[in-house]
Structure formats: C-alpha cells, structure tokens
Amino acid sequence: MEPSSIARFPQSDEHGYPYTTEWYDSLKSSLGEAGCRQLGFYPIPPDFLLSVVIPIFNEQKTVENLISQVKAVPIRKELVLVDDGSTDGTRDILKRLEEQAQSEQDAYNEIRVIFHEVNQGKGAAVRTGFLEAQGDVMLIQDADLEYDPSEYPRLLQPIIEGRADVVYGSRFLGDQPHRVLYYWHYLGNRFLTTLSNCFTNLNLTDMETCYKLFKKDVIKEIAPGLCQNRFGIEPELTAKVARRRCRIFEMSISYDGRTYDQGKKIGWKDGVKALWCIVRYGLKD
Q1: Less packed terminus of the chain by CB within 10 Å, N or C?
Q2: How many Å apart are CA 165 and CA 173, to the nearest integer?
Q3: Where are the alpha helices (DSSP H) in the chain?
C-alpha cells in the first residue's frame, strides 16, 4: 500500500471519532457512565496534544513498525524521534518517515526527527526529546516493540481527568499479558524499585518501566536539570517527581520483552549505576 493511500487516524465508527465528546456521549447513552469508566472510555479535549518522545539507537528492524503503531493511536500527537547516533541504517528510515509525514500533512500525527551525531545514551535522548516537545502530556516510548502504544488512552485518563500529574505503567501489577523471560532481571528490577521506594517514600511496583507520562509543567521544570545519559534516567526522574510531591498514579501495562539476541541493551553495569543514582538523587536534587 502506498503511503498516500493509508487511512488517516482517527477513523470514525458508528459512535463518531474515538475519544471525542460526541463519541463518549453516544457510548454513555448505551453503556452508562459506570460501564464507560470500567472500559476506559472518556472524552479527550479537542485541543489536547500528546508528545511521544522516542529515543532510538540502532532499531532498524523495529522502528518503522513501532512508529506505525504510535500513529494508529486515535489521539492528536507529536512524535519526537531522537536518533542517538545510530549506525545500522535507522537514520535513513527516520529521514524518509519525516519527509513522508510532511507530504501527508496528517493533522493527528506530527513527526519531528532530531539527530545526535554520536551515541550518548537513552537518558540523553530522552532529555533532548523533553526539551523539544510541546505537548500537554509527554511520555517515553522505546522503539523496540516491548511496550504497546495502544495503551496510551488508558494511561492518560488519570491525567486528563485531573487526578494525576504523573503516571507510571507497571509491568508487575498482574492483569496484563507479560512475556516470561529473565528471572534475575525481574529480581534486580524489584530490588531497585524497593530501594528507590525507600528513598522516595513511594510504593511503586516498577520504577524502571519505560512508560512514564508527565504533565507538561512537571517535566518542563525537571528536564533542564536531568543529568543521567544512560538508564540512570529512570531513578533520577522518579526521585525528582517524588521530591516535588507530584500526584503519581501507577497502572498495569502489557510487556513483550525481547532477548539479548533480539537487541536488548541494558546490562549489569546499568544496574550498578542505577544503585548509585537511587542513592544520589534520593538524597539531593
């Protein structure tokens, strides 16, 4: 299928365009307010903009598929793609996708690509993305297909309804599909999360999750001071939102983890650095 013939999102159904007031009212009339709440149906303001910050490094095999999945989410979005010095052909794919987006003029999906000339790490790419993004809510999306973009609307609901400033998507709350992989990774994650909770006085179940969503005013205050260039960005962000007494929600997400043969990048050295970051940012901003 040629790019020009791809249907624009969102696509209307018998109730209207997804997450509009008309769509919600139509569903509420048949399901009731309680039914809509249980199913995660709610209206999103028409002027709302979601920024999806995607750090990318050598993801030639997955990045195009991931971007298609993000674009398919029926919410107005800007995709801030930060290539962190890829050397496997990923940069050429991103340039093509940016040019394609400009020609399509899709009102629901703006694509911006930022290139780091040398690899700096996930944290550096995330910081660059946050500083460039302009959406009302900003979230982090890895490019490796481990996390499912179709869950964005459910994760956004507490923020849009005014109940939360920050939302974490937890892989360990238990009611979503979760690929079974490395026991020692699981144990290490739980240890790091527990230690982080001791310093932040939060009761998170998954501090290391990729899916972290922030209101614009929260992350714009924090982003300029972010220091960690690799995976230490996770405990650093957590400590800084906790210190600001943000209202934090945690929601279950699915997880299709990949193996090292499939390109997983985090290693034991990152776990050691995370320990240092938990103590360092737990004591002082």
Answers
A1: N
A2: 20
A3: 21-39, 63-72, 90-104, 122-132, 152-160, 183-200, 216-222, 233-243, 268-283
What pLDDT, in 10s, does the model give residues 98-150? 999 988 889 899 999 999 999 999 999 999 999 999 999 999 999 999 999 99
Number of Cβ atoms within 10 Å of the Cβ of 184:
9
In the block, tokens 């809509």 appear at 36
Tally: H helices and E strands in the chain: 9, 7
Choose among 57, 81, 254: nearest CA to 174. 254
Q: What is the pLDDT of residue 266?
A: 67
Task: Name the strand (E) or helix (H) holding 56.
Answer: strand 50-56
Higher pLDDT, 238 or 106: 238
Residue with tokens 């205050």: 221
Q: Are 179 and 257 in contact (CB under 8 A)?
A: yes
| Residue 194 to residues 97, 179, 235, 248, Cα–Cα distance (Å) | 40, 22, 11, 16
> Residue 66: which of 51, 81, 77 has the closest Cα?
81
* Model pLDDT, residue 165: 98
The Cα–Cα gap between 218 and 122 comes to: 20
What is this structure's pTM?
Answer: 0.89
| Helix/strand/coil for 178 | strand
